[in-house]
Structures
1.
Amino acid sequence: MTKQDPPTLSSSEMLRYARHLLLPEVGLKGQQKLKTARVLCVGVGGLGSPLAFYLAAAGVGTLGLIDDDVVNVSNLQRQILHADRDCGRSKVDSAAEKLEALNPAIRVVRHHTRLTAHNASEILQQYDIVADGTDNFAARYLINDACVLLGKPNVHGAIDRFTGMVSIFGVPGGPCYRCLFPEPPRAGQIPSCAQIGVLGVVPGLIGMMQATEIIKWILGIGESLSGVLLRIDALAQSYQKIVLPKDPDCPLCGTHPSIRHLNEETTEGCTLPSRTDNEREEQISPRDLKQRIARNDGIFLLDVRTPEAFAQWNLGGHLIPAEQVAARLNEIDQSSEIVVICSVGIRSQSVAEFLRAHGFSRVRNLRGGLHAWLQESDVPSVVKDVVREEAMQ
Amino acid sequence: MTIQVNGKAYALDEEVPLPELLARLQPRKPFAVAHNGKFVPRSQYDAHRIAANDQIEIVQPSVGG
């Protein structure tokens, strides 16, 4: 935290935080610490929503939000900062608006970008502590590595289906994420929530645990989850703490580290690719694709869903189910720009990468898939239901 | 003898080193292993012998957010 005189609290702030001021563990000094604190929320989705909401309410003075995603209707079952009317808007703008409305006394900093190996140090240096609310391993390892290298605590939360885990990494003397899982999983080893689902309240539970750890760290109270992994199982209502020692052989924070600076190679091969500056060129938004189709400018639409899903509704593209693409490359027009399409944009992303690796130079993925396309379309609701149902499978 | 693996009973004829137990369980990778409530760094697997009534947790990472 910055070493300055503690900030004064206005009379309206004194009223707002009255219940905190009553707690000897918080009090005026604690509330001033909260006001001075700068917290970066990486991702304002399922975890970022509840944790940012409570940190704003608690009076954390500077809240940075970083996300380059837009709100999709399938987010709303758990990403409680966003409302139905926000679909299609930037998540950062949607979230900042709600947080500023909740507490005008705080400063919300909007980072409309994605954390990368290139921008991580510059962005993280503006904050005291980082909350990891991301949804892919590339980002999680990047945050872990950047936080250890910069000496910032990293409050980790992760979820799937009915379970979640929380810990705080990168605290001096404590372990990091790589002490637990030294290398990122390879693509496809661990499924994402978009593939296997998540009960909407689970990110709420875990995000709130992250917010609790952040507030405790700022105030310097209680027992931290540094050196402990907390696992929560919502079905069993069980809370399990497992001691997590620092690994002396950790490639990042051990005695002989092999990772000494940030680069994309260290997070290579994760479930979702580490996003780079080129990534925008590798994706196409539904809006841009509609304009391109309307101009009829020779795009090859490659639909990689199942024949059943394709038969129900399609954009008039060429059908090759994802698992057959490798055997049917000769059907794909290499001279055209190719846009790969599936229900939610995950299978198609893998196919797009596969094509690039096999010499196709102009390949883009329909971002968010047909599900996102339909959010912005004037098509009968029954069609939307069909695609939505398939997207949820 | 019996041990607990992720809360379920698992029978063993005799005490075994942790790597041998993992070779039998074949957990889905990647995973971390906790022995009696404490994670074991990979470089220390050989030093851990699994005895009667020990508790083993195999933990895969979650990624969702």
2.
Amino acid sequence: MSDFEPGDQASIASVTDRVRPVAIGAAVTAIHFLGDRAAFVGAEESVALVDGEGDISRVTVHGGGILCTASDGARIAMGGDDGKLAELNSKGEVAVLATDPKRRWIDNVALHPDGAVAWSAGKTAFVRSGRSEDKTFDMPSTVGGLAFAPKGLRVAVAHYNGVTLWFPNMAAHPEFLEWAGSHLGVVFSPDNKFLVTTMHEPALHGWRLADNRHMRMSGYPGRVKSMSWSAGGKSLATSGADAVIVWPFASKDGPMGKEPAMLAPLQARVTVVACHPKQDILAAGYSDGTILMVRLEDGAEILVRRNGTAEVAALAWNAKGTLLAFAAEDGEAGLLPL
Amino acid sequence: MPSSTPQKIPVTVLTGYLGAGKTTLLNRILSENHGKKYAVIVNEFGEIGIDNDLIIGADEEVFEMNNGCICCTVRGDLVRILDGLMKRKGKFDAIIVETTGLADPAPVAQTFFVDEDVQKNARLDAVVTVADAKWLSDRLKDAPEAKNQIAFADVIVLNKTDLVSKAELTEVEARIRGINPYAKLHRTERCKVKLSDVLERGAFDLDRILDIEPDFLEAGQDHDQHDHEHHDHGHHHGHDGHGHGHGGLKHYHDEEMQSLALRTDKPLDPTKFMPWLQNLVASEGQKILRSKGILAFSDDDDRYVFQGVHMMLEGDHQRKWKEGEPRESRLVFIGRELPEQIIRDGFESCITS
């Protein structure tokens, strides 16, 4: 079904002719910007660093599949099925941060702006910060996701039936936020007031951290795999439906009792979302290869990439918001300067 | 093969009670020179004596889906591991999932029905159960897990046949058949079985769903059975099964776990059959371990095939009925304390008059 394009999309403003195609040539699972270079993280072994001119240099980081990535803008931390936690800096230098003695998969990784790194292998979560020794914490079940709180050294660890809030440098008991089901991804709101998880079932779950009140965010036809906070953290954009589902977080109650906005509906599933770092705009990628830029305020759309290709696998903005990078599952990628 | 998607990676689930020989079979699969590469998900790391970067340790983490259905459990670890393995697509041909000896095969099988991502990339090929010829009969009495594993199997590797007499072998096979007459059964010593008999069977493939013909042939090959008939009756007096001869064949009826076969050469009414089947698995799904069927609907020139695990069903139009092929509907249920008469009556009511 690649022939509905004229009627459907002719009226939409298009910037498709401004996209610089980049041929990565292998499956891409994530994109992060390191300075001015876009780092396209492959499904296996290597990262392709692409500069503004479209020149590609490849760096090998793992001896197998790359399972998870996190970036703070200065470096990318990656966990692999080779049992290694590796780091790539903006010069393209690779360092191995940790090796699991049992060669277990490194399933999750998170970075803190002050330099701390958290990772997990099976049920065990690890944190390394500053000069101190690595801290470890065994969860009741396999870790599904990790996130650092924006303030202080606090790690949210998602697992079955809830989230553990762990303070690696304190003897205090970790806090446990309970909700039945399997929690796979976790994010704090930028203002540190809310915690949101993606679940195995097609739903999000949230907690208001002041009083641990629950927020159920359900109704998705598919599992939510991509979440992105808008500039300023007033809303959370998500994948998983045939429109971008945007939950309001501006008030003290967050999305409790409110309906989400449904932007940019298409006859395809949203697979990945990325909010612009400065303006109230987001980029959304779909299962049919379409990429749109969408204004949060009124849902106005600009076409970045047409449908009819492989599923969009990754999207990222550079820190200034002047460059959008994207990649499809088949390794077809591009850069859009704005 | 219209309804099978070739790029989906076949997954074999390997079950079997403690000590039956799962690890022996796995080691054979991994060391034999067959030109294929397998990714193996094991529950106890280190038992496999072969160095392979595609051997992954798993934790058998079963959780309930939040959909109000208590037997709708899936293996969360498997969802995660399969997702990770897909990053290395092209580096292996098939996946083998070993379960622990005490595991219920249902959550593993259900993972392939429920999870959207798993379904997209992988398909359940067959449940292969390794059984210990010497001890299985005892385990069927005292270990519900062992019985589940036999009931669930598409292929049964009856191992350690060199440790039992011919009579004991006949006895244990009859017990297996009392629970699951539809699985392919292979007798082995030290799990020496042709790998093509256990791998890439397509047993869960809707295209090859079944022969729903009971696989009694192998049990019938023994002729010295009458000598032991009497002994069997005496020995099992008061236990949960009873044996009786049928001209050289021996049948056991397991009082707890049964299979039920239904058949009609009259067309089924789809507007009655589908709601009936869905209601049946919704209300009795905890008892029904496996269900399979080939269906002939009225005013429909296509064969319809379905299969299920507990409350989950999947089905599709498979192909046109062939010229001269009898348009017959056949269904099989394997389960615990099946309400046989209710199922038979319900099925009858779906036949067009």
